[in-house]
Amino acid sequence: MGKRLAAEFLGTFWLVLGGCGSAVLAANFGGDGNPLGIGFLGVALAFGLTVLTGAYAFGHVSGAHFNPAVSVGLWAGGRFAGKDLAPYLIAQVLGGLLAGFILMQIAKGSPSFALDAGQAGAFASNGYGALSPGGYSAAAAFLCEVVLTAAFLVVIMGATHGRAPAGFAPLAIGLALTLIHLISIPVTNTSVNPARSTAVAVFAGSGAIGQLWLFWVAPLLGGLIGGLIAKWLGEDRP
């Protein structure tokens, strides 16, 4: 169990550092219109690449969840033992928090870095209403996070099924996460992962902390729904 938890810690650390790091450090590098800034597309790809590479690096150790919603969804789908949920969730949150802390130390090394807690997406945080990049309501944000997390679980469980093509699951999962970000960055700045949201919210200020509940409840509910759908579709078959 110790190595499994270490893999979840490191994998979540990598996801937050790579995905949120791209948003904080590179998405708008040089200001609007600068060709060096990677924008929404670059951030979406960064999140997908962190999951893809992390799954290949750590999947054989822990299953490469890196996300409390994924762990809950796999449990609901009969793929993960309930007794391991709490240790996995703790390792994921701690790994994300360390990445958030390191990212903040790096960001503060630039004289141009300024954190505005009232700004949408501050320090790659998730939000709704005034803290949504597109000003989307809490209801829209909640629905978006539930549906996309559920879809993510269906992809994960389908791609890792015994009858799926061997060795390609990380590619499908990474591309699915990229697509999810392309859809929902304007809505919530994309969570689908409570550990990722927590990792930056604690550094982004009271606004992000006050809205963090949604980015726990909605992804966990979505993961539960997605796991049950995947199981109903035939996950219990050989």
TrEMBL record:
Membrane-crossing segments per the record: 36-58, 85-107, 136-156, 168-187, 213-233
Database matches in PANTHER family: AQUAPORIN TRANSPORTER, MIP17260P
Residue ranges of the motif NPA 2: 193-195
NCBIfam families: MIP (TIGR00861), PRK05420.1 (NF003838)
Reactions performed catalytically: H2O(in) = H2O(out)
Keyword Transmembrane recorded: yes
Motif (NPA 1): 67-69
Domain remark text: Aquaporins contain two tandem repeats each containing three membrane-spanning domains and a pore-forming loop with the signature motif Asn-Pro-Ala (NPA).
Membrane topology summary: Multi-pass membrane protein
UniProt source species: Stenotrophomonas tumulicola
Official protein name in the record: Aquaporin Z
Annotated positions for site Selectivity filter: 47, 181, 190, 196
Gene3D superfamilies on file: Glycerol uptake facilitator protein
Function description: Channel that permits osmotically driven movement of water in both directions. It is involved in the osmoregulation and in the maintenance of cell turgor during volume expansion in rapidly growing cells. It mediates rapid entry or exit of water in response to abrupt changes in osmolarity.
GO molecular function, one term: water channel activity
Cellular component, GO annotation: plasma membrane
Main location: membrane
Keywords of this entry: Cell inner membrane, Cell membrane, Membrane, Repeat, Transmembrane, Transmembrane helix, Transport
Family matches, as PROSITE patterns: MIP (PS00221), PROKAR_LIPOPROTEIN (PS51257)
A Pfam family matched in the record: MIP
Subunit relationships: Homotetramer.
Keyword Electron transport (UniProt): no
Residues under site feature: Involved in tetramerization or stability of the tetramer: 20
Family of this protein: Belongs to the MIP/aquaporin (TC 1.A.8) family.
UniProt subcellular location: Cell membrane
